[in-house]
Design goal:
alpha+beta; two-stranded antiparallel ribbon; 14 helices; 25% helix; globular
């Protein structure tokens, strides 16, 4: 399953309360349609067009950058009306209002989502789940967009502050290395890390970089006042980290309620960056139906009422007490409680029939439409719709056991490893079969593969899904060249989207001389490897070790930052896979 493979695959439309827009009023309201652009970027564009300050422009909520989104913004009626339609941004006058726009004026969002790369089983799961989700909904968890701090290895900044680790919190919020830093941002963070404590030097580095100079200017004058330094950090970034931890605590409390109310066979579990998200199957238990919601916890849990006990259980697992769930003396980190529904039911949920997915050969796509209240996550609804029920998982496990016990699988062949529950020499939905071969003949050197592409029958091919034969070959979407390999295969070459002559290996491969790489592309003996089995790339130069990398570099070198750990370790190392984002902290966009 793939979401947002194209920007047009994910449309979000903000829904305003019916009585907000009027024919007259002190505020002009604009409809903003944007693509590949954050809400703050759109605000700057509107401010430029109207000649106002960005602080004059009000909005109801942030919208996803990786989508086509329509939202509203209000401005004081002291400007000339504007219209803009350029590239990825369109600004239209929508009407007037008696008051500036706030989140209270939004009743939620409408979504139109294209879900791609679906196999037949995925479509069957959707059909099985659709009526239940439409009628009963799911637990209203916060999804991955809320937790950019985890994608960027920053951990929980707010937790550090609750524990009194002000210096550590400041480092993690603004200067902690991220696997998605640009080369320029990586150099800046490295320079800051190497000179940390020399505030005059850090101030000079930041002045040259053009960011965070005032933080080090403050520390140069007040060397130990890390709490005060937060005042000079962007308020939006401070709030992102505060809300992320508060949402994490809510998610864990909601998960406890589900586990207490539902037997294991009555729930299903969704995956997320933040942790496992259990939800009910079918109708929710009576204990949950009777609840008005689960409050986002405020300072010291003082506003949590009868739910205080469940939050105390969560905090104990975090190494905190209710009294410690409070941040004092740090600007921008005041915890405030808020009511939140525990269960959300998507409104007007509709699914169009599956159709061919031309971006992913052999797969289908479906288009979904539904509405959600403000603060709920469409991606979570999609996850739930495509998550197998406990009963379906048991059926699948049974089929897999029967397949593994099938002696006709041909997995013991010296050259091939054969097929996926198929006879010897025939690949599961093989796309590159040599029709001149005798598929029934044993021990051919070119057995099929799991959805193999053209070239499957090169010398020593074969292999297949979970192949592991002497000359491997093939692999899950593998190439099938000389050294082959496969998904968890032992041989070199081939591999998951591999296919180079002696490179590649397999997903979690790399068992032989020729390394191995998840999406490895080197044609020699050094292509990467997702979680290679060697201890060190230095001690085994032919086995690589990079996630989405090639050439034998580690995705996260051993001297780099620990991923999402609360404290400790030197984060300023070298190397690492780099993306295109350059900011030091990411929002829900």
């Amino acid at each position: 399953m793939r979401l947002k493979q194209r920007p047009g695959d994910f449309h979000v439309r903000e829904l305003l309360n019916d009585n907000y827009l009027t024919e007259k009023g002190d505020y002009a309201v604009y409809r903003i349609t944007k693509k590949k652009m954050t809400t703050p970027e759109a605000i700057k564009a509107l401010a430029t067009e109207t000649g106002l300050e960005t602080g004059d422009i009000k909005f109801a909520g942030l919208k996803d950058r990786q989508a086509v989104t329509t939202q509203y913004m209000s401005v004081p009626r002291k400007h000339n009306q504007v219209t803009l339609n350029e590239g990825d941004l369109r600004i239209e006058h929508a009407g007037y209002a008696e008051s500036e726009l706030t989140s209270d004026h939004s009743r939620g969002n409408g979504f139109e989502i294209t879900v791609r790369a679906l196999w037949r089983e995925d479509v069957r799961v959707l059909r099985n789940n659709l009526d239940g989700v439409r009628e009963h909904g799911l637990i209203n968890y916060f999804d991955d967009q809320r937790f950019g701090n985890l994608r960027h290895d920053q951990g929980w900044v707010a937790r550090e502050l609750m524990l009194g680790n002000m210096e550590e919190g400041l480092k993690r919020m603004l200067f902690w290395p991220s696997p998605f830093d640009s080369a320029r941002y990586e150099r800046y963070k490295g320079d800051i890390g190497r000179n940390w404590g020399n505030w005059s030097k850090c101030a000079g580095i930041s002045r040259g970089f053009g960011e965070h100079f005032s933080i080090f200017d403050h520390l140069e004058k007040n060397p130990e006042d890390f709490a005060g330094a937060f005042y000079f950090a962007p308020s939006r970034i401070r709030l992102i980290h505060l809300y992320a931890y508060q949402s994490h605590i809510w998610n864990r409390a909601a998960a406890l309620l589900i586990r207490d109310a539902c037997a294991k066979e009555e729930r299903t579990v969704l995956s997320s960056d933040e942790g496992a998200l259990p939800t009910f199957e079918g109708a929710p238990p009576a204990d949950l139906v009777m609840r008005a919601g689960l409050r986002l916890p405020g300072s010291r849990l003082e506003d949590c009422g009868d739910d205080k006990a469940v939050f105390e259980r969560v905090l104990a697992a975090e190494g905190l007490t209710a009294e410690q769930f409070h941040i004092e003396g740090v600007s921008g980190f005041a915890l405030k409680g808020e009511d939140r529904p525990l269960v959300v039911v998507p409104g007007h949920l509709r699914v169009r029939p599956a159709e061919e997915d031309r971006l992913n050969r052999g797969c289908s796509l479906v288009k979904l439409r539904f509405e959600l209240p403000r603060g709920s996550y469409a991606t979570l609804v999609v996850k739930r719709i495509f998550e197998m029920s406990a009963e379906m998982k048991l059926e699948q496990e049974k089929r897999e056991r029967e397949r593994d016990e099938n002696p006709e699988g041909g997995r013991g062949s010296r050259f091939g490893g054969g097929s996926f529950n198929k006879r010897q020499g025939q690949g599961f939905q093989d796309r590159g079969r040599d029709r001149n071969r005798d598929d029934s003949a044993p021990n051919q050197e070119s057995q099929g593969g799991y959805r193999r592409q053209e070239g499957s029958f090169a010398r020593g091919g074969g292999g297949g899904y979970q192949g592991g034969n002497r000359e491997g070959g093939g692999g899950y979407r593998g190439g099938g060249n000389r050294e082959g390999g496969g998904y968890q295969g032992r041989g070199g070459g081939g591999g998951y989207q591999g296919g180079n002559r002696e490179g590649g290996g397999g997903y979690r491969g790399g068992g032989n001389r020729e390394g191995g790489g998840y999406q490895g592309r080197d044609s020699g003996a050094s292509s990467g490897g997702y979680k290679p089995r060697t201890e060190s790339p230095d001690s085994a130069p032919n086995t690589g070790g990079a996630y989405r990398r090639s050439g034998g570099e580690d995705y996260k070198p051993k001297d780099s930052a620990p991923a999402a750990k609360p404290s400790g370790g030197n984060p300023w190392g070298s190397g690492g896979s780099k993306g295109s984002d350059s900011s030091s902290s990411k929002s829900e966009e």
